[in-house]
Amino acid sequence: MLRILRQSQRWLMAAVILLVGGVFVLYLGLGGPPGAPGGDFTVVAVAGRRYGPRDLQRVRENQERQYREALGDAFDASRLAEQLDAAAAGTLLQVGVLAHEAERLGLRVTDAEIRRELRNTPGALDADGRLRADALRAFAQAEYGSERRFVDWERDRMLAGKLLQTIDAGVSVSEAEVRDAVRQRLEEIRLAWVGLAAAEAAADAAIDEQAVDRLLAEQPERARAWYDDHPDLYHSPERVRARHILLRVEEDAPPERLAEVQGRATEVLERLKAGEDFDQVAQQVSEDPGTQERGGDLGFFRRGQMAPAFEEAAFGLLPGELSKPVRTPFGLHLIRVEERKPAEDRSFDEVRREIARGLLAEEAARQQVRATAERLAEKIRAGSSLVEAARAEGVSIERTDWVRRRPDGFLPGLGPAPEVLASAFALPDERPSSARIFELEGRLVLVQRLERREPAAEAFAEEIAVERDRLLERRRGSARDEWLRVGRERLAAEGDLHVDLSAFQGS
């Protein structure tokens, strides 16, 4: 289980990095346009701001550190190198664009603010809490290449932060919005639904032989395509259906252990020869948990699916015959063959009428199911409920327990059905049946909301604060994204925005 969780984490982190990196790759491309800065190894350029390989490497290492702290060994940076490069370039791009937009709005960062921020630099303060100029210079040189680059980056980062604070301050949510969101998230409904499947109706379709002749004459390619697409139906190897009783013995068992199991196998074989029912004996003594309750039934199998010794014995028996004890890596088997099916290789000419009948039956079933669905929808439009209409048509009705809105739209019995679920919640109380016919996995589905249940008062009150924070965060994120998008597009149109990872990847 731990391995599975780690694999899931690795996939999730890869998806996140691919998404983040892909956004910038798709928007800007990699390599930059003609004339993009590159001779001095500029990786990201934003309206005069230039970030190089050292900046990209620093940002990437910080991001890798965060991923590794979250995922541990599940994070594999080597497999995601290009995506991590693009994500780090995206961070530099965001800082540059937001800093530029902040200056355009008149926001500024003072030297005093920068000095206060520098106090947070590792090792920047002495024992008395005073800035250590030598430590700051050493840190700036090691991490940024120069003191100037260090200060410029801090200024850009703080400008971007000021703009984000300004954006956030302009975002609000009303109490009514919060309450509506909680109500939507917690309210529950019960549904009735009808699912009409053509596959279930196909068996009832009566096919006229003249229609078979017409299909084969006018559309022979349809029948041939079906034949070619379903080779397992018309070309099958020899198969046997067998039962077995397994008495386990290790491959490297000592002689006395093997002799003991062989003795038991002989006793069981004598019981079977004396006429005891194989099914019952297998349930009593077989040590194969996968088949014991089924009386040792293995179903049909072909050559190559069983251990060689087992397979040789089974294919050498006639129906009803018993084998002697057969040794395999699993132990000793007693085998009885129930049925044999010879190899089949049916030509297209042999089965073309059979295929044509099936195609016509499927087509007739689809028409029949569609007609039934349309009649149900028409009755609903005329004022009937789905339950009433389905009863009048003799159609089976399914009902759910209480369900809530879900991102995947999962409904018991239907699986992922987001449109169905959304439609059910949106149905008005005065007309809770929908005349819309949904198509889901080969089924035509109609739905009716049976009941709606409001959230309990205590649960509602508990969720208000959580939902307010959730809505604010979501709205702030949308506002930030919009500011970034508009600023980025403006700069790109003016030729003041370039990304060129080739300089970094080739350095």
Describe this structure in words.
- This protein is of the alpha+beta class.
- The protein contains 19 helices and 15 strands.
- The protein has helices spanning 2-28, 53-71, 81-104, 111-118, 133-144, 147-169, 175-186, 198-202, 209-218, 220-229, 231-234, 255-273, 278-285, 308-315, 348-381, 386-393, 418-426, 457-493, 502-505, and strands spanning 44-46, 49-51, 188-197, 235-236, 239-248, 297-302, 326-328, 331-341, 344-345, 398-399, 410-411, 415-416, 438-440, 443-453, 497-499.
- Strands 10-3-14-13 form a four-stranded antiparallel sheet.
- Helix 2 packs across helix 3 and helix 15 packs across helix 16.
- It starts with a helix and ends with a helix.
Helix-strand blueprint:
Elements: H1 2-28, E1 44-46, E2 49-51, H2 53-71, H3 81-104, H4 111-118, H5 133-144, H6 147-169, H7 175-186, E3 188-197, H8 198-202, H9 209-218, H10 220-229, H11 231-234, E4 235-236, E5 239-248, H12 255-273, H13 278-285, E6 297-302, H14 308-315, E7 326-328, E8 331-341, E9 344-345, H15 348-381, H16 386-393, E10 398-399, E11 410-411, E12 415-416, H17 418-426, E13 438-440, E14 443-453, H18 457-493, E15 497-499, H19 502-505
Antiparallel strand pairs: 1-2, 1-15, 3-10, 3-14, 4-9, 5-6, 5-8, 7-8, 11-12, 13-14
Helix pairs in contact: 1-3, 2-3, 3-6, 3-18, 5-6, 7-18, 9-10, 9-15, 10-15, 15-16
